[in-house]
Amino acid sequence: MASELLTAFLAALQASGSVLLTILYGLIAGQYGFLDNHAAKRISQLGVSMLLPALLITNLGSQLQLDTAAQYVPVFIWSLAYNVTSMIIGIVATRMFGFPKWVTPAVAFNNTTSLPLLLVQALGSTGALKQVLKSSDDTVSAALDRAQSYLLVSSIVGNSLTFGLGGDLLSAHDEDPRDEFEKKLRDGSEEEDPEGQREEDQPDEETSLLPQPVVTYQSRVSRSAHSVASHVWEGYLPRPVQTVVARVVRFVSPPVVGAVIGIVLGIAPPLHRVFFNEPQEGGIFKAWLTSSLKNLGELFVALQVVVVGAKLAHGLRGMKRGEVSGQLPPYAVMFVLFVRFVFWPVVSIAVIVLTASKTNLLDNDPVLWFTMMLMPTGPPAMKLTALAEATHADEEEKLAITKFLSISYALSPIITPTIMMSLKACREWI
C-alpha cells in the first residue's frame, strides 16, 4: 500500500514538475526577448483561433461515435455545474468580504485547457495512467486520447463561459449587449473598400497576400452580409429577441465552432468513416486532411503553456519598472487559492466517487472518473489578464493580477496530492 502511494505521489510530482518547467521555459524566452508580449499575444490568439479548433475537430471527432456519445453528457453537465458554482462562490465572496473585482473570475475560471492537457500527457509519460486503464486490453495511448477528449469537452464549457460572462463579471461590458452587437454590424457594413485605397500605398505586414481582385470581392461580400444582417436586425427582430441573440453570440468562439464540427464528424457514421477510419477501410481523408489537422492541433498544448510563461515574464518586468506596488489583499489571495487548490479537489473527488460507486450515471471508465476529478482544480486561467485589460483597470490592479497569477502558477505543483488521491480513489474506492 505504501509503495503504491509513493509511486503515485512521485508520478504526480514529476508530472507537475514537467508542467512548471514548461512554464519556466516560456518565462526564460520572455525574459531574454525571444518571445515578447506582442508575439505572445499573437501566438495565444493563433492557438485559440486555429490550433485548439483543430485539436477539437480531430480529438472529439475520433473519440465520439453514436454508441459512445452518451458518456460525454456527464462531463458536460459536471463542467457546467462546477463552473456555475464557482461563479456563485466568487460573486458572493466578493460582495460579502469586499474583495477586488478580479477575485470573481479568478475563482470562477480555472485553466481548463493547456495546463490539464499537458498534465495528463506528463502522467502518461510517467506511467501513472497505467493505474486507471479500463481493462487488460486498454493501452496508455488510448487512455491518454480519452482523457484529452474528456478535458476538451470541459474546456469548451469553460472557454464559452469565459468569453460570454467574463467581461460581465469584471464589469467590462458597460453597454447593453444589443447595442454592442448592433455596433459591430454597423462597423462591418461600413468597412472601407480595398479597391478605393490608393494604389501607391506601400505593402506592409498588414497587406493581404491574396490577389487584389480576391481581396476586393471578399471585402464586398463581407460588407453585403453585414448590411443584410443589420437590415434584418433593425427591421424584423423585436428588442427582446435582439437582446437574447446578442447574448448568445458572445458565447460563440472558434473553439466552440471546432467542437461542433468535431461532434458532427464523430456522430455521423459516413463522416466518421471517411475522416477517421484507416484508408483501406474507407478513410479517404485520414492520411492527408485529418492528419494535417492533427499535426496542427498537437502544437496547441505545449505552445500555450510556453506562452503562459512569456506573459508572466512580461508582467513581472512591467511590475519591476512600475512606480505602483500592485498590493495584493492577503485574504483575497488565500481565498482564491483555497477554492482552487483545496475546496474543489476535495469536493470533486467526493462527488465523483459517490456518483461512480452509487449510481450508473458514469461509464465504467477509470480515466473518465480521474479526469472529472481533476477538471475543477488548478490555477486560474491566464485570460484573467485579458479581462483586466478589457475593464481598463488601473496599473495598480493590473500589477496585482500579475502578482497573483505568478503566485498561483508557481504553486501549481501543490496539485500533486490531488492527482495522487484521484488515482487512489479510481483504483480503490470505486
TrEMBL record:
The chain crosses the membrane at residues 6-34, 72-93, 248-268, 331-356. It comes from the Eukaryota. It is a multi-pass membrane protein. One of its GO terms (biological process) is transmembrane transport. Residues 173-210 are annotated as: Disordered. Keywords: Membrane, Transmembrane, Transmembrane helix. It is found in: Membrane. It comes from Immersiella caudata. Its main location: membrane. One of its GO terms (cellular component) is endoplasmic reticulum. This is Auxin efflux carrier. Residues 173-188 have a biased composition (Basic and acidic residues).
